[in-house]
């Protein structure tokens, strides 16, 4: 349904000749993030009245709200929809070449919204046990999780810098509190503080860069910025360049690329496990989506600046992440979550490659990043689902705690092995292999042969720690005559089982039908 909201007639001296600000609001287009936000507020209010014994209903309300938001994406799949647009009169008064819109529900938007909302849904399923046992305060937790998910779902649809920054902060601010949600846990508080300080710095740099871009171009709409950056007056050229660089640096913090990655390992280890899973997928999707929008949509004329910079950052990020993950030696009782944290840094390097390639090629390379992100989201959430299961009996969650997992939890061990092989790019994880080939091809097609070589070396490095962990799942302790279960036989909560099943099915479906994800690499998203 489209509702026309007409501004009141202007009066006074500004009435004559003033442009109309009539706007068209497409409620169906904004429904997924809007419903998520409405459910978050409803949970916050309901928490005031529900007795302690019925707080678990808040979790199921949040889960149902996220599932409903996912369902609302289905009516939008037919084509592009735009809302919150300047009218023709307002656009003419602003000197724009076409009607600019602040919210666009195109293919890129819908795919990222699906990734974000599905990731939040799996996170919600993983969180039920902790909130029900009182380890996390139910009302606050569900409100913060859905608030962050609403901001993350809004961000890919944002087509002006103001909406983009607001969506970024709506997604980030609740995440600080989620990381520090474990009351009385010093590590959790320290992780939240480190995450907060790094994110505040990133926001300040991003806002400064956006203000410089606005001063140089006189507009906030991304498509108009792209047009006006081509003919910036000479006296504003340096200001525009500084704005572009600062905006990119700000998003580099958000995406945790090297050298702005320092907060990731400690934050993941100190956060509740479901929150770490959420940050590794949804948080990363938010950062990369913003980076894609400002580079490919807003700053294409400065591709000679951000292209080489992102290529170098991609090489550094994948190398540092994989080498650090390789150093997580199981014999030294290293944390499995810390290994996954460093793995996520390495994976961020692969995600950067097609964005950098877009600066050198006329073809739309962004689809390769989207395809890889879909694969990574499914299998990484699955790996975290298994860590949540193991943590029920081994709270320290060391890598050695997974030795012989197959003896006690064969389904969980097989699932984790499958997820790790996907991340490594080995069969039977066909989608992991194809996604890496797609990213590799994007670098080669763009003439970035040196980056493709570095990626190939890093894939080999990553094989070592992924296969080492996979082999540990089927290995029994030395000197034992028979397999010894490392995870006690305890009933697994149904939501955790459902989360594990959903991620496993997603991984299997994508491996059996990789075209579902890889087709985005073959079509233009912008």
From TrEMBL:
It is found in: Cell membrane; Endomembrane system; Membrane. It holds the Pfam family Proton_antipo_M. Its EC number is 7.1.1.-. It catalyses: a quinone + NADH + 5 H(+)(in) = a quinol + NAD(+) + 4 H(+)(out). It is an enzyme of class 7 (translocase). The chain crosses the membrane at residues 34-50, 57-76, 107-126, 138-155, 161-181, 193-216, 236-263, 275-299, 305-327, 339-360, 366-391, 412-435, 447-467, 496-516. GO terms for biological process: ATP synthesis coupled electron transport. GO terms for cellular component: endomembrane system; plasma membrane. Belongs to the complex I subunit 2 family. NDH-1 is composed of 14 different subunits. Subunits NuoA, H, J, K, L, M, N constitute the membrane sector of the complex. This is NADH-quinone oxidoreductase subunit N. It comes from Streptomyces laurentii. The gene is nuoN.
